[in-house]
Amino acid sequence: MALPSTPTVRTRVTREPQRAVYEREAAYRILDEGFICHVGFSLEGQPFVIPTSYGRAGDNLYLHGSVASRMLRAMKEGVPVCVTVTLVDGLVLARSVFNHSMNYRSVVVLGRAAAVEDSAEKTEALRALTEHIVPGRWAGARQPNERERKATLVMRVPITEFSAKVRTGPPIDDEEDYSFPTWAGVIPLEMVAQTPVPDPKLDRGVAAPSYVRKYSRRKT
Amino acid sequence: MALPSTPTVRTRVTREPQRAVYEREAAYRILDEGFICHVGFSLEGQPFVIPTSYGRAGDNLYLHGSVASRMLRAMKEGVPVCVTVTLVDGLVLARSVFNHSMNYRSVVVLGRAAAVEDSAEKTEALRALTEHIVPGRWAGARQPNERERKATLVMRVPITEFSAKVRTGPPIDDEEDYSFPTWAGVIPLEMVAQTPVPDPKLDRGVAAPSYVRKYSRRKT
């Protein structure tokens, strides 16, 4: 079992501190259910926030993309980054507009990224990225060749300085509002996979494998 | 019909430029389907990316939160911000790992935020935020009183400098990979509302209104 991290002044949750989670395992469960992160970095004083996929392997996040990517090139120069993963679980409808909220789980990782140069780690990172997004796909697809590996920049973001924030449960209203005549509760939201759509160029005889037909982000 | 915006050097899409969208209306459709944005801002050289809800009214995005929020206080000081909204539509499984992709729609807005001080605009912004997230709820809930309005900071982000990026459709493989023996296609993903969960403190006689029972982010 991993030890909880000690929040730094930068990752200590100041708003709604009762929602803060600093345990590494809890943060990893969130990171493993998500597959899209939002990466923040600054260029000439302007912050940019770019969505991209990621994978986790051990205590590292891996991001990848073209060697021409502005984001990855900035990250490669060692600028500070922030990687945020958010899972939205529901809309919380209180009696008062003021107490409306969201149920969510989010993780914020601060740090600097480094390009993965080692060939074995690069393969492992690409495998982790693929398996993180579609478990089973690495063995089911044509794996990267040398040309593709050279065209791909893989960045490692160590999960060192991080915090997570979680809200669950029903709305919490002010005592005098409980008699207000309206419905209150939670509308749960879930990212659900719909029926797979075969590539029009796919031979009709090729059936979708179980990792495609039963795709779900929910971890049991 | 709104005119397309002219991309600046900061918002011109450099990677996969064929996915770029600069039309205001197309960007607004994405902003109106989403309800969670990721806000980027820098403090002492460290970028932070924080998820929060938003509303759109005309050519402005509105964000809100506690007057004690670190993010909102930073925004209020006029630092440059980036507001990114991402809708994930599907996983794109190509024959080669290298050509795997996502179907998505995203909007990036750059600029500076300003606190909404005018009382009428503040009410309108809070209404827009509520209606953006749960259409019908503003009239169905107890609206903010003076104390709550004072405790709430509302920020306006003008949608001036922005770009959108969209990928749709099947995988695109290298010609020589089409014979690779695997399934290829798209796993569509959708944020779906599940059965509403009434607040345990709610009188059992109160039925969920139609805007709760039929909640959907999909715009028809």
- Summarize the main sheet of chain A: 7 strands, antiparallel
User: CATH architecture of chain A, please?
Assistant: Roll
Largest interface (CB < 8 Å): A-B, 92 and 92 residues
CATH fold type of chain A: Pnp Oxidase, Chain A
Instruction: Provide the CATH superfamily of chain A.
Output: Electron Transport, Fmn-binding Protein, Chain A
Main CATH class of chain A: Mainly Beta
- Structural class label of chain A: alpha+beta
Shape of chain A: globular
Arithmetic mean pLDDT of chain A: 93
Order of helices and strands of chain A: EHEEEEHEEEHHHEEEEH
Helix content of chain A: 10-25%
Radius of gyration of chain A: 20 Å
Low-pLDDT stretches of chain A are: none
Distance between the termini of chain A: 19 Å
Structure description:
- The structure is a homodimer of 220-residue chains.
- Chain A has six helices and twelve strands.
- Chain A has 220 residues and is α+β, with helices and mostly antiparallel strands.
- The longest helix of chain A is centred in the middle third of the chain and has 15 residues.
- Chain A has one domain: Pnp Oxidase, Chain A.
- The two termini of chain A are 19 Å apart.
- Chains A and B meet through strand 2, strand 3, strand 6, strand 7 and helix 3 of A and strand 2, strand 3, strand 6, strand 7 and helix 3 of B.
- Strand 11 of chain A pairs antiparallel with strand 11 of chain B, so a sheet runs across the interface.
